Amino acid sequence: MRVDVRALGACNRLAERGAKQAAGALSDLTGTDLAVEVTGASVASGEDLAESFAGRESIGVSVGLRGGLDGEAVLAFDAVNADALLSLLPGGQSMERSAVTEVGNIALGGFLDGWANYLGKAIDMSPPRYFEADGAAVLPDGALAGDGVFLFESRLDATTTDLDFSIYMLPDSGPFRDLIVGKTAPAVTAGGEADGGTTSTAVPYESLSTFSSLAKRGSANAADNIAMMTGLETSVDVSRLRFVPLADVPAEVGTEPHAGTVFELQGEPSGYLAILFEESSAAAVADAMLPMETDEPLGEMAQNALCELGNVMTSGFIDGWANVLGTTITHSPPEFVHDIGASTISPLVAKLSQRQDYGFVIDTAIQTEGIQARCDVYALPDERELARALDRLSES
User: Fold this and answer.
1) What sections of the protein cross the membrane (predicted)?
2) What pTM does this model have?
């Protein structure tokens, strides 16, 4: 099966629209405003999903899907927020199971209405099933068994209370396959006009799974480089390949102060890579690398240390891509950044957005145990160049 990234973008827009409908339905039910934080599609293996959901305790509802779309949809929220949710619902604590089930039924129905309208076919939902689950048990059993599955994830945030929801949809093949099959689109010149040729944005599904594995391997290499240069035990918490609207990426990084390095990638695929630490983590990691204490936590010496670390991490991250894809990828000298998270990555997104609206984002969380430092790596490859490289990979 070949996946057309533009068709996948259309599906992502459907998921976003559905999430907004779900937010509206829940707002009416609970009397509190809910906003859609982000919606994205992931290509993830069972192992990736197990790691992504590790340590979570969730309460929610799942439904089976039949008709216009087959699969399963899940609404889940952190168990620690159960009291906050129940306080907003009719019946409160005394109606916990039935109240949560009703919330899930209403929210998932709203989420799926947009898909049904687009398909022109009804999507039948099985009766909602209430669950309390640890880790990836929130997802259908089959999600962890395969080499790679599509996972649509939407996060909803309550603006007036500590209450976050997530909606997950895992479509089966069949009707969903017809939505994302490969197509050929007119090539576009730098001036925005069709040049008469064609360029494919379709990539083999198996290659996406392979690239997801490459992203994971690159994350492990980057973590090893941190350990080597700081002497601190380091591990990769999460590494996932997601397909998201580029405009949503800065909001995901957030408004907390971050420091780190950004790079421009040249080759195939080109693009951008950002290595960002929360401000206190950046200072702690730099301190571990310096031979002496400094008066300025993120002064010139610390900045140089973080740039050196970023150089080594980036090389470890992309070398595996180049080897497997059969291309040459180089990177620019590191540019030190220190600002709120969204501002550090917005310029990269703005440049890439001149060529595409969506992108494959590789986001990686690297945890340094000795000082509790967290590092997030955002890789933003050029969509068309990545498609060409993955196409060659499938042929070889």
Assistant:
1) none
2) 0.74
Contact 85, 77 (CB under 8 A): yes
- Strands 2-4 and 57-67: what pairing? unpaired
Inter-residue contact 169 to 73 (CB < 8 Å): yes
In the structure encoding, which two tokens stand for residue 21, read together?
């409908």
SS (H, E, C) the chain: CEEEHHHHHHHHHHHHHHHHHHHHHHHHHHCCCEEEEEEEEEEECHHHHHHHCCCCEEEEEEEEEEECCCEEEEEEEEHHHHHHHHCCCCCHHHHHHHHHHHHHHHHHHHHHHHHHHHHCCCEEECCCEEEEEEHHHHCCHHHHCCCCEEEEEEEEEECCCCCEEEEEEEECCCHHHHHHECCEEEEECCCCCEEEEEEECEEEHHHHHHHHHHHHHHHHHHHHHHHHHHCCCEEEEEEEEEEEEHHHHHHHHCCCEEEEEEEEEEECCCEEEEEEEEHHHHHHHHHHHCCCCCCCCCCHHHHHHHHHHHHHHHHHHHHHHHHHHCCCEEECCCEEEEEEHHHHHHHHHHHHHCCCCEEEEEEEEEEECCCCEEEEEEEEECHHHHHHHHHHHHHC
Q: Which pLDDT belongs to residue 165?
A: 78
User: Is 42 in contact with 243 (CB distance < 8 Å)?
Assistant: yes
Contact at 8 Å (CB) between 350 and 342?
A: no
Q: pLDDT tens, 327-379?
A: 889 999 999 999 999 999 999 999 999 888 887 777 778 888 878 788 888 88
The predicted structure's pLDDT at residue 201: 63
Strand partners, 130: 61
